[in-house]
Amino acid sequence: MAMKRVATSAIRAFTSSGIPSPSSVLTRELHASPGSKKIVGVFYKANEFASMNPNFVGCAENALGIRDWLESQGHQYIVTDDKDGPDCELEKHIPDLHVLITTPFHPAYVTAERIKKAKNLQLLLTAGIGSDHVDLKAAADAGLTVAEVTGSNVVSVAEDELMRILILIRNFLPGHHQVISGDWNVAAIAYRAYDLEGKTVGTVGAGRIGRLLLQRLKPFNCNLLYHDRIKMDPELESQTGAKFEEDLDAMLPKCDIIVINAPLTEKTKGMFNKEKIAKLKKGVLVVNNARGAIMDTQAVVDACSSGHIAGYSGDVWNPQPAPKDHPWRYMPNQAMTPHISGTTIDGQLRYAAGVKDMLERYFKGEDFPPQHYIVKDGELASQYR
Amino acid sequence: MAMKRVATSAIRAFTSSGIPSPSSVLTRELHASPGSKKIVGVFYKANEFASMNPNFVGCAENALGIRDWLESQGHQYIVTDDKDGPDCELEKHIPDLHVLITTPFHPAYVTAERIKKAKNLQLLLTAGIGSDHVDLKAAADAGLTVAEVTGSNVVSVAEDELMRILILIRNFLPGHHQVISGDWNVAAIAYRAYDLEGKTVGTVGAGRIGRLLLQRLKPFNCNLLYHDRIKMDPELESQTGAKFEEDLDAMLPKCDIIVINAPLTEKTKGMFNKEKIAKLKKGVLVVNNARGAIMDTQAVVDACSSGHIAGYSGDVWNPQPAPKDHPWRYMPNQAMTPHISGTTIDGQLRYAAGVKDMLERYFKGEDFPPQHYIVKDGELASQYR
């Protein structure tokens, strides 16, 4: 019941159509007390799904479940899913908002231009992990704080990566498509279905997600490799049995399966271009739940079409939402989804709690847990440098 | 190249259409030496896929890769995929075959009637695991030996089960269907997508496959339960952290996810009927790669339609191949495939080697590895009793 109230009161922000929604009559005048903040949240809209699960806090209607708490403290909380173009709902609030909460799943792109217009802006919070939709340099130059809920959905993403590895190597989707289209042809699946056991899996990046993936891969008896800027501590390395590969280009041709676990930065943007993909083993499987822009879109399409990449799966695209004509929707042997892996119900509850905790600290003038900072005092966190 | 020869020589057995295939001109007269045996193999036909992978030995065309070896020893080897009805190719060879090799993926049903007609039959070999397509009582009464390649694809099936658990709990398929139909609606996926971490997973049966599954589930930090006739040895139990549930009906309501890992026997046939399914938690996910007939087909459809079962995935059906109008093709929240999990390329190579080894022992009059026997000296193996 509590969730239903949240949902009802959140809906009033959806005025992007220009037509007042029936629930707009519920709008209360907010008498901002001194120190009261204007907080704007941009989340994906759930429509009929919003009321289907009381723990579905990550959508715009349920607004992280923090509306009652924020309003009881005298703050203003605007929530919308309308984030693009000069006439969008978000744009209207840019000039006077203090805090902007965004997510990687339905990214509100916080450009240098928007930052310039946002004269009151102090804090940019990412509900989830990955703040590359924010122009971090512009944010740092403007003296803003950018923080995310580090760790909130690392388990969610690592589990999802293992699922995608299995879907590709075991050739699940052609089998499922046979079922729904009334066919039965075991051979058409089996000729390219393999066990994961005994294969070589390499992760490009072994941060929190990469390490959780390696731990989950351990009992599958694979040959595990990882490339990162830093070697893992020996205990974790021996726990997973993964071997450090300092030279990425030396690791790539060894792998039957490559998983991307690197943040999107100036260095990783477009990193897997035609030349890099050519270094991969012919018939490689690629899983990328990191960021779509780490890949050269067309190079991936070409490699899937030629068979050099035998399967590509991930939930990240460039841009997001992926337009109807995005070529990854149409390339062969893809096992793609919309950006979902980090926004399971479990993940949502964790990042909603993390956002609430940071807002509470912000109101009190306290520091955040240090690992949450992406930009602090004009300085970028190390992985974004 | 060697594989191509196998494929060509195997094709001559495909005469079910009544029209001689162009390759039938390749047929050599086989001059059976004394002690020569007539061996018939029934496998799924691969057509254009047969030549696409040199290790694709499990199809009819490649015939386990043992044709040259068998024929060089003077044995006759007939291979077909035509297994049903009174006029099928298999039926023609029943009266004089000595050995029949079948698979669970494209089961040739060895009925009491066929056994009665097979006057020369001595040995029934299953390329794979699961010999329930054979009337085991009739085989025992007739003094036949029935054996399978125990262990040949247990890893394959366990991996596949973990994949299906993740596909269901993370709600993968609706997301993938959005991609191919040009949509983007994260909420429609997220409202019922969960992490596996923290959920309760119970396996009904903890034989070789069930144990491998539990080992692979270990790093996911689930609550693991298992029901079996016998408690695992304490070392394996503490290794997986799984808790023994002596009473199946007490375990069922505790589980968020149920995995069936029991053989099909008189006791397990139709075991998950309406009453048993009613004992499951509302919203349970069910994975069944064991045998389709363990479930009451309509009870599963009804429970998926009502939402009592929130997701059902497996590769086994009753009967197989599943007809076009099998209701599991059309029920909501299914993640089904044709029978594929045990016939990965890795699995095929293992069960082909196991069949060859048993044939070699059979020709020499030697015993098989004891764990391979399903019926020996008129006695059923313990799990089939």
TrEMBL record, chains A, B:
NAD(+) binds at R208, I209, D228, P263, L264, T265, E266, K267, N289, D315, H339, I340, S341, G342. One of its GO terms (molecular function) is formate dehydrogenase (NAD+) activity. Its main location: mitochondrion. It holds the Pfam family 2-Hacid_dh. One of its GO terms (biological process) is formate catabolic process. It is found in: Mitochondrion. Substrate binds at I129, N153. Keywords: Mitochondrion, NAD, Oxidoreductase. Residues 163-341 form the D-isomer specific 2-hydroxyacid dehydrogenase NAD-binding domain. CDD domains: FDH. It catalyses: formate + NAD(+) = CO2 + NADH. Its EC number is 1.17.1.9. The record marks R291, H339 as: Important for catalytic activity. One of its GO terms (cellular component) is mitochondrion. Residues 70-366 form the D-isomer specific 2-hydroxyacid dehydrogenase catalytic domain. Belongs to the D-isomer specific 2-hydroxyacid dehydrogenase family. FDH subfamily. Homodimer. HAMAP family: Formate_dehydrogenase. Catalyzes the NAD(+)-dependent oxidation of formate to carbon dioxide. Involved in the cell stress response. This is Formate dehydrogenase, mitochondrial. It comes from Forsythia ovata.
